[in-house]
Design brief:
Rossmann fold, 7 strands, 234 residues, 7-stranded parallel sheet, alpha/beta
């Protein structure tokens, strides 16, 4: 089954938020999902300990560079999707996970500083390809924490630079939403948040579903296992 890796050498790029959004949307659509928390800060594991995690979503927290390859291989035999939230550094564990990926997602915010770190992640993917006898590892940049109403000049320029250099960029952006932050405060999924306590849940759901749907589309176009062709994001 396909593995989807979230990678960025910069902390705070939105890896954990995007990984949880994708995992919960896929699980809510009926898929079985394993989410590997390889971030030393364990944000995903802390979220998973709160109430409301979908029953079809398993979280693996005990992982290091010696075990991550085996953990991903094992999870592939049990789940339709394996999602890996990596640490915000370049390390052997990051390289091992990227080498097993069907898709590497590189979250970045819309600044030149963040974009430079995203470029480092893309280079790491390309170097890992070379070390794997050139086996293609699809990768795409995901802009996170963007403004839902206004696209900044910096963001437009950075997007154009990536595209101009042949780096795929998600059409969907994970925008700044109170509902996304609330997931890590209350647990559960966007569907289980209380609209009386958290604003903008409907818009957050629309955004998360668009992101998950685009991930499915990229996997299909790049020849991911046929079983995902039956997975639809509801």
């Amino acid at each position: 089954m396909p593995s989807i890796v979230f990678a960025s050498p910069k902390g705070g790029a939105g890896k954990s938020t995007s990984a949880v959004l994708l995992a919960t949307e896929l699980a809510n659509s009926g898929a079985t999902v394993t989410l590997v928390d390889a971030d030393p800060n364990k944000p995903v594991s802390r979220w998973a300990k709160k109430p409301g995690k979908p029953a079809s979503l398993a979280v693996i927290a005990d992982v290091d560079e010696e075990t991550i390859t085996g953990q991903i291989k094992d999870a592939r035999t049990k789940s339709q999707f394996v999602i890996v939230d990596l640490e915000g550094t370049a390390s052997a564990m990051v390289t091992f996970a990227i080498g097993m990926a069907n898709l590497v997602i590189v979250p970045t915010q819309g600044s030149q500083l963040d974009a430079a770190e995203a470029v480092r992640a893309i280079k790491l993917v390309r170097n890992t390809e070379a070390s794997r006898d050139g086996r293609k590892i699809p990768a795409a940049v995901l802009f996170t924490r963007t403004n839902a109403a206004i696209e900044t000049r910096d963001l437009k320029e950075i997007r154009a630079q990536f595209i101009g250099n042949g780096v795929p960029v998600f059409d969907t952006q994970v925008v700044e939403r109170a509902a996304y932050r609330a997931l890590f405060s209350y647990g559960g999924t966007l569907k289980t948040l209380d609209a009386k306590e958290v604003a903008g849940i409907a818009a957050a759901l629309t955004n998360a579903r668009a992101f998950a749907g685009e991930v499915i589309g990229i996997l299909k176009r790049n020849g991911a296992p046929a079983s995902i062709k039956h997975a639809e994001v509801a």
